[in-house]
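Hi R.,

As promised on Friday, here is the backbone we talked about, encoded as structure tokens. Could you run it through your design pipeline when you get a chance and send me back a sequence?
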């Protein structure tokens, strides 16, 4: 089974197991939410994700990014998973997501920290492509723009610097930063905050007018490991995106001290990364009777037979084969 099918199957199994349960309307997230109903949850998810990561080393990075893109658009409600239908304008076709999302996640599997994920969240009945286009910061965002995108979600500058550390693994396509290599801010010159040797390497990987969709490692030192090297790279002007390097190279910025702290202390980075992932993961969650538990991750449930059980008699005319977000 390919990695996406595995993840899709896992998500759908979880949905089916839990979909029939009802919860009080004032329910809160709780790391032990499934303690009685599915004590093996943690090990099931770990096993599936580790299989997935073995097949494709980039998949954990893709999953963490998927969570970010979900949370910044009407909260962490799996709205990003909803495919296009007659009534759903899918977020997957918003600018920051198109040809760019993959289903999958794990920090622990890639050397990063673990944390107790508050559970009990439910799935949205809607998606919002417009919000996906406006809420997500872009690769050329300046520091004030990044701060304001995070503040709009109730997140702090510390969250911004901590979560940007996710760019210590995964890849970016050339066209998203090639302006920095050849014609930064229409100056006809490269971005002066790029290290000259690193600039040459990147120019070779992403030649001018070359294929924009070539993928380049965010971290040239440990490309598939979640570690503090992202911050060490910023200190030596080796941030890949402008939005990365802004955290260290914006004169007088309050983010510089945080970058230096994380660059010197991996534990400090891990602790803050875990805290900020929890804070981000709590944005706009649906609990209790809000939303629903989808039987198929990428489609809203079709029918409700009973007001109590929100997944009974659910059918989708779409194929389960397409049960996860598009992948490239
Ligand atoms: C601070 C603002 C951010 C900007 C401007 C940004 C932008 C980007 C861009 C342009 C890419 C490359 C996408 C592509 O090639 O299709 C990317 C990849 C990635 N982003 Fe971000 N991002 C930000 C914050 C975050 C956050 C908060 C997380 C998670 C906590 C995250 C996790 C990732 C990961 C892991 C990848 C690599 C995905 C892969 O290889 O499949 N990013 N990001």
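Update: got your reply. Pasting your designed sequence below so it's all in one thread:
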């Amino acid at each position: 089974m390919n990695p996406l099918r595995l993840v899709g199957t896992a998500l759908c199994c979880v949905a089916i197991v839990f979909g029939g349960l009802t919860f009080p309307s004032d329910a809160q997230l709780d790391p032990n939410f499934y303690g009685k109903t599915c004590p093996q949850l943690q090990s099931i998810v770990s096993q599936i994700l580790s299989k997935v990561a073995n097949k494709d080393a980039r998949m954990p990075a893709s999953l963490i990014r998927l969570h970010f893109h979900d949370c910044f658009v009407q909260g962490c409600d799996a709205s990003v998973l909803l495919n296009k239908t007659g009534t759903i304008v899918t977020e997957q076709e918003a600018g920051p997501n198109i040809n760019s999302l993959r289903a999958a996640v794990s920090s622990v599997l890639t050397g990063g920290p673990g944390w107790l994920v508050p559970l009990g969240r439910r799935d949205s009945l809607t998606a919002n492509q417009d919000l996906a286009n406006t809420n997500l910061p872009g690769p050329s965002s300046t520091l004030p723009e990044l701060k304001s995108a995070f503040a709009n979600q109730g997140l702090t500058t510390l969250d911004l610097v901590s979560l940007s550390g996710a760019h210590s693994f995964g890849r970016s396509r050339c066209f998203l930063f090639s302006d920095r290599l050849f014609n930064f801010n229409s100056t006809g010159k490269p971005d002066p905050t790029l290290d000259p040797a690193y600039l040459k390497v990147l120019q070779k990987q992403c030649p001018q007018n070359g294929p924009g969709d070539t993928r380049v490692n965010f971290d040239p030192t440990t490309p598939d490991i979640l570690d503090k090297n992202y911050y060490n790279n910023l200190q030596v002007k080796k941030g890949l995106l402008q939005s990365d390097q802004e955290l260290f190279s914006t004169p007088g910025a309050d983010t510089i001290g945080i970058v230096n702290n994380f660059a010197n202390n991996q534990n400090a980075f891990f602790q803050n990364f875990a805290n900020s992932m929890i804070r981000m993961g709590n944005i706009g969650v649906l609990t209790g009777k809000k939303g629903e538990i989808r039987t198929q991750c990428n489609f809203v449930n079709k029918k409700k037979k009973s007001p109590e059980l929100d997944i009974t008699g659910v059918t989708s005319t779409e194929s389960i084969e397409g049960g996860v977000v598009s992948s490239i």
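One thing I noticed while checking it: DSSP finds twelve helices and two strands in the chain.

Thanks again,
M.
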